[in-house]
Amino acid sequence: MQAREGADRRAGGEPIRLVQTGLVVNALLAVVKILAGILGHSYALIADGIESVADIFGSFIVWSGLRVARRGADTAYPFGYGKAEALSAAAVGTLLIGAAIGITIEAIREILTPHHAPAPFTLVVLVAVVVIKFLFFRRVSQAARESGSTAVRADAWHHWSDAITSLAAFIGISIALIKGPGWEEADDWAALLAAAVIAWNGLRVMRPAVQELMDRAPEESVLSRVERAARNVEGVLATEKLKMRRAGTSYYVDLHVQAEATLSLHDAHILSGKVKGAIRRDVPEVAGVLIHMEPYEPQ
User: Fold this and answer.
1) What are phi and psi of 288, to 5 degrees?
2) Domains of the chain, earliest start first
3) What local confidence, expressed as pLDDT, does residue 3 receive?
């Protein structure tokens, strides 16, 4: 229970507050960018605003996923609600890819349609956005590393993609303004570049989320820590068939432990309890351990 509660604390608190703050910031930035894009004749800025709208939904999804993931195990979900984090991250990735497709279609239409050059004041808006989003990315990334949360990591990459799209829009608008007539489409090409970055980030967010949903084994370093903790318990002669899966910020372990064949059922039960305790003590991220006791069979 202590490991589970520790995982819950890592999944909540500061990460949730950052996600909530991100919701407010994204809403304000979306309004500013879309209005500036319309008034300043910049589709790249409008596309950037659309990406911020996607960020709003994405942050809300992440927030909801974190809240659900913090629930304790119950009869309906005996392994807890941790996978709500991976589900929310996968949804965010899908949202990003969908936004990229929409921006691409509209940017191509704008390239084929003559229009005014963007206004210079749009550059000021974009500089402010890049700075704000880069700072948010760094802070949320730190929270993701500390919590080990897939969903919080997805939210961090949301902020990063927004910073990159704003930078791409800045470059496109600058080219259009510097080169003058005939270069108005540079702004729209910047929107296309932004769409590519958004799509790439969407795939980057989805990959670990899908892996977690499919119960992919964790990194070798984590497996080694668990196996080493089990083998260091007095009475354990060998271990095999180690299986681990992730749910939110926690892991669940399934392990076969070999001991003396002459051990009584009672003593084997006591030994398995010691192994569970050792694993959860040495690897705090582990929320549950299932031990299968077997007689030792020298190879």
Assistant:
1) -150, 145
2) 2-213 (1.20.1510.10), 220-295 (3.30.70.1350)
3) 42
